[in-house]
User: Which sequence fits this backbone?
């Protein structure tokens, strides 16, 4: 049995210069579209390193120094269907938000065990497609965080 997941995660909104957002569909939950997400691997793992690792694992994209830390943390209740992955009694997670701008047409290579499809969508469509409210809110905040309007 694997060690329990830590209730600390990262959310990375990947976008191109025109603010088209990359969404990936969970393999085990068809119809669940999201940005890159993932838990820290160990206590003390730097959040930016966890974010860059998750981006590389889930999309094949190397973040380099383009990763932007929003210094924003969302606390939310862990969906009951996923609580078994955590230690007994853990029911809340703290999600730290990042964004990553990549060139238009950046190739995506999915981790097939985790995700089954990907798509680039205009900002508002991407936010509407997300199953997670915090993910949709992060996408909606993107223009303000970057101080520019969608193109």
Assistant:
């Amino acid at each position: 049995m694997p060690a329990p997941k830590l209730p600390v995660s990262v959310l990375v909104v990947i976008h191109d210069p025109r603010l088209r957002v990359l969404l990936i569909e969970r393999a085990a939950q068809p119809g669940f579209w999201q940005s890159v997400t993932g838990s820290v691997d160990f206590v003390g793992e730097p959040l930016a390193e966890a974010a860059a690792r998750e981006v590389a694992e889930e999309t094949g994209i190397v973040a380099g120094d383009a990763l932007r830390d929003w210094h924003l943390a969302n606390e939310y209740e862990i969906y009951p269907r996923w609580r078994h992955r955590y230690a007994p009694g853990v029911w809340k997670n703290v999600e730290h938000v990042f964004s990553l701008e990549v060139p238009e047409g950046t190739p995506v290579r999915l981790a097939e065990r985790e995700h089954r499809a990907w798509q680039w969508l205009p900002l508002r469509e991407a936010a509407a497609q997300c199953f997670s409210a915090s993910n949709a809110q992060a996408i909606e905040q993107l223009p303000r965080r970057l101080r520019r309007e969608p193109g």
In short: The longest helix spans residues 133-146. The chain has one domain: 8-146. Residues 8-146 form a domain with the Nucleoside Triphosphate Pyrophosphohydrolase fold (CATH 3.90.79.10).
